[in-house]
Design goal:
single chain; about 150 residues; mainly beta; Immunoglobulin-like; eight-stranded antiparallel beta sheet; two-stranded antiparallel ribbon; about 15% helix
């Protein structure tokens, strides 16, 4: 389908995810600008609720990114771009809080998804995790911690 390596396609997906907000002039975004933060999804089987031992220092273990934006209406919008196992459904969680939904990868392992949740009640440091049904070892991802934007 696409001749680019998976990591290049992931980078292109991230650029596409970031473009809609960046393309709007400031006046079209409203007077109260939304705030955004980013986390990296790292292939790691386990961590605590704060993902205190999750590090993005090994590029071979990075499988995606999470962009978190605080909307002016008080909701958090989460955009996820991953490269993982092909044709697999991953359950995506606001870690130790609740499920946000599922992400289904395509035949080459790429996927993007968006989720929303209320900012009130969210912990001040956000962490995410995702894994397929049965949570097989080697297919789990933990996010780097990110401060609530």
């Amino acid at each position: 389908m696409c001749s680019l390596p998976p990591r290049c396609r992931l980078l292109l997906s991230l650029i596409v995810l970031a473009m809609p907000a960046a393309a709007l002039p400031a006046s079209a975004q409203g007077g109260d600008q939304s705030r955004t933060a980013e986390a990296v999804l790292v292939r790691q089987d386990f961590s605590d609720c704060g993902n205190s031992d999750v590090k993005a220092d090994d590029p071979s273990r990075i499988g995606g990114t999470v962009q978190i934006t605080r909307q002016t209406d008080g909701k958090m919008r989460v955009k996820v771009a991953i490269t993982a196992a092909p044709d697999t459904t991953y359950h995506f969680f606001l870690k130790c809080v609740r499920s946000l939904g599922d992400i289904k990868t395509q035949d080459e392992g790429e996927a993007t998804a968006e989720f929303e949740f209320a900012a009130d009640g969210a912990p001040p440091i956000l962490t995410f995790d995702m894994y397929p049904e049965g949570a097989p070892a080697g297919q789990k991802f933990q996010s780097t911690p990110v401060k609530l934007p």
